């Protein structure tokens, strides 16, 4: 009988406690990834568990390289990541700095900041789809009333308008998480650092540049990774608002994966898009985490 209380076997006891969680992670994460890679290497129209296997081939990845749809989806996804990620980070940082100040009603202000994140994604998107409707949407009505536009904006049929409408809804939905994470980071910064900086004559901007931003660098890195992964994988907002249209202007990699797999029933090609998306996300995550981790030292 092994005595797990002894220092010699204490590490083995830790591994034993971790084993159920590791097995569960392998079951719900690693196995689907391996299955997706396997399907991506087969010419599969509809994947069936236990069905006859097709021989492995690189035709699906060859299709990716030659497909204009894939490269358009990569370009749209990159634009959306930069637009949504950058603006969400800026708004999230601004709101975090605001609600970190001491004023009456601060708890209520924090509640309103977090409210968009609490609303279910599909429900919020359906509401925004109604508000952005070109015929009876409140957004076009308000813009017409104040004279900013002379005719209703066709958010569903204009490629540029559709792209920025999707970005706007994603920013509205995503910035509260950024704000909450940065607020947690702000509250972990010792007040003594700011007091010492004031004694040394540092103004507001100097305190922000030399104390706040460097202290927030690790949190900003993690937040940037989470926002990037969220934009990469988000499906509901884009599908409910535009279904990837018009003319592919909002077709991201997640939408392309769905279309190839469940609209055109080319699951091999859909799996190949998913695998490439996974590789891109892993590379970006590693680069962002490494970048912000190095900026701390």
UniProtKB/TrEMBL annotation:
Is the keyword Transcription in the record?
no
Keywords, A to Z? Cell membrane, Membrane, Transmembrane, Transmembrane helix, Transport
Q: Where in the cell is it found?
A: Cell membrane
The record's section on InterPro entries has: MetI-like (IPR000515), MetI-like_sf (IPR035906)
Q: Could you tell me the superkingdom of the organism this chain comes from?
A: Bacteria
Transmembrane ranges, per UniProt, are 12-34, 73-99, 111-131, 151-172, 208-230, 236-258, 270-289
Domain ABC transmembrane type-1 span(s) in chain numbering: 74-288
In the bilayer, the protein is annotated as: Multi-pass membrane protein
SUPFAM superfamilies cross-referenced by the UniProt entry? MetI-like
Family assignment from sequence similarity:
Belongs to the binding-protein-dependent transport system permease family.
PANTHER family the UniProt entry points to: BLR7065 PROTEIN, SPERMIDINE_PUTRESCINE TRANSPORT SYSTEM PERMEASE PROTEIN
Instruction: Please identify the protein, giving its name as recorded.
Output: Sugar ABC transporter permease
């Amino acid at each position: 009988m092994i005595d797990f209380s002894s220092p010699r076997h204490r590490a083995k006891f830790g591994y034993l406690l971790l084993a159920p969680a590791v097995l569960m992670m392998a079951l719900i994460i690693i196995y689907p990834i391996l299955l997706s890679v396997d399907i991506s290497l087969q010419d599969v129209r509809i994947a069936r568990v236990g069905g006859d296997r097709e021989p492995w081939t690189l035709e699906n990845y060859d299709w990716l390289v030659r497909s204009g749809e894939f490269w358009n989806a990569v370009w749209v996804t990159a634009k959306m990541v930069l637009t949504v990620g950058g603006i969400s980070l800026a708004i999230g940082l601004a709101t975090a700095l605001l609600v970190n100040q001491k004023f009456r009603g601060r708890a209520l202000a924090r509640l309103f900041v977090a409210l968009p994140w609490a609303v279910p994604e599909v429900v919020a998107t359906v509401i925004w789809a109604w508000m952005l409707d070109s015929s009876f949407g409140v957004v076009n009505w308000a813009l017409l009333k104040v004279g900013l536009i002379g005719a209703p904006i066709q958010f569903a049929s204009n490629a540029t308008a559709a792209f920025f409408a999707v970005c706007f809804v994603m920013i509205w939905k995503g910035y509260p998480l950024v704000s909450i994470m940065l607020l947690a980071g702000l509250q972990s910064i010792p007040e003594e650092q700011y007091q010492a900086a004031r004694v040394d004559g540092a103004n507001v901007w100097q305190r922000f540049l030399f104390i706040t931003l460097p202290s927030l660098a690790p949190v900003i890195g993690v937040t940037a990774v989470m926002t990037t992964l969220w934009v990469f994988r988000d499906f509901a907002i884009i599908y409910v608002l535009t279904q990837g249209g018009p003319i592919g202007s909002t077709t991201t990699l997640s939408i392309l994966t769905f279309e190839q797999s469940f609209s055109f029933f080319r699951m091999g090609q859909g799996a190949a898009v998913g695998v490439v998306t996974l590789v891109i996300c892993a590379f970006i995550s590693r680069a962002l985490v490494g970048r912000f981790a190095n900026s701390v030292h």
